[in-house]
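mind reviewing both lines:
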Amino acid sequence: MCPSGTSEPLPCERGRFSNVTGLFDQSQCSPCPMGHVCSKGSITPTPCSPGSYAESAPTSSTASAEKLAICTPCDKGHFQPMPAQTACETCKAGKHQQLFGAVDCQLCQFGASSTDRALECAVCAQGFVRPLASSPSGECRQCLNSDGVTCPWNTTRATLVLDHGYWRASDRTMETWECERDGEWSPCTGGGFAGGGDGGGSYCSDGHHGPRCELCVQPNHYFKNARCEGCGDLSDYVWLFVGVLAAILAVVGSVRWLLMKRELPKNKVLRRLIKRLTGMLSVWRSAGMRPKLKIFFGVFQCVAVVPSAFNVSSPDDLEFLTEWLEAPLKLGADLLIPGRCFGGYLQRMLFSTLWPFALLAPVTVVSFAAGALKSSHRRDRLSATVRGGLKKVGLNALPLMLVLTFVMLPSCANRIFRTYLCDEFRIDDDSGLTRAFLHDDLRMECYTSEHDQAVLFTVGLLALWPVGVPVLYTTLLCANRKPILGKAPPTHLSRVIAFLSDDFHPGCFFWEPVDQLRKLGLTGFILLIPAEHEQARVLVALTLSLFCLMLQLVLRPYRRSEDNVLMMLVQVAPAPTSPIRFVPVSHAPPRPVSPHPSVDAPSKTRVLPRPIPSQSTVWARADVHQRTRD
């Protein structure tokens, strides 16, 4: 380019070029095309290499034109794979680039992700979770959606999203719990906000709070079938309970009075009723139904504790069977009065374990009064009155006491021992902080002064039920061992305690206390083993059941051979290796699930059935032992 008056040709400025001659002005130099650079005096434009870019040449700004004399490397978080480009592309989410002048972006490692224009992968990908927002992406772990949690992009422990029907104690833990359901309804709403505190109340629907949302906000309400229900008027339940007890006493007393009448009444209805009752009683005795009923009832009592003792539950299609098997443990006040409507846990426990004595009280008073009145005409009026009253009490109240204690011992003992059974909820994964609540009543926090008071009361109740009843049975049997063994004539007391001894051979008169200890071990004492040692509970229960089975095979204590066979066949049922298949994740208590593999959730033990001898083999053994005994 030769402008007018110049002695030498001038080059085109930076940002322009020309490959023709005869130019006389800078404006005749061509602008550098897009994606190219033109240094001063360029004849042809130079394209920018991949990883860099150049803007188009402006028409007026000399400074900008000078800027276009060189290619600009792509900034961090950007890339350009093509030459001769005017801009760099942005690294999208899931990729990153820490270098200048990159020709491509690097994929994030498995489980990690990033934002647009990211220099590094600092968040977790969808389906992954990390403990804290400040945690490196290398700590991202796969999130298990099947366990009740959902992990969207950039999920941390605090922003973990729970599915409907799941709950956790705080936003500092990844331990989640499955809640109770009633069809599609559940008090646990799930979501991604834990409320910022301990208790997980933000996961609960209106009217619910507490662990697994099983506590009711409104007073005078209790949790049942995943819903809060009103208690109603407590006096109605009390009168119902009193009425049922009175009806039981009236029926039992009437039947006993009719059967003890020496002469048939003139009334045809009563005469026919007495004959039918007598005939039914005769069939009952000839068929030996009492030991069989006691055996089956004892089996149901032991099987009923399997869900709470071993943290398992039956499959959904057998849920009705589990509820039916659990019925023996619910005998008592809970059948008529909702437990959580009756004051606190301590009042509930005392009422549930002492109500049988309320049934015995009127029988004892009436029997003593009748016996005392009958003996009051004798000379030594005072001593005769007392002896007569006590004799009548022994005749009427003691048999009822033996039946009541037999029926209620496993359920009362289980209720007492559950005072030591706590559900532990993790609050903070980093520090290991936990809070424990009583399994039987989540309103009470364990290891507090209130819980210590309840534990103190259980000491007396343990002496009354799990210890006192077997001691009572043993004392009565030992005091009457000679009449039972046939070494002395039968006494009044030996006839009264026939409920304990008549079903067994005289040499095995002690079997009833032994069997009660077996049931207490499976329904009560086993709960003293910490819940985290479930396999130890299984091992202890299995060992106890096998020991009693071997003792049963050796002694064959029942008078009837079919009772011995029946007892041997059902002996295996109370153990956790029952033929009834149970699977983990229970409703009592629900099992925790953890979406983070590094969090040690309690193991889910699958309980396998124990092999049982064939029926023909057992019957053959029974016949051999019976012939040997005879």
Remarks:
- The first helix runs from residue 62 to 67.
- The two ends are 136 Å apart (CA to CA).
- The longest strand covers residues 422-426.
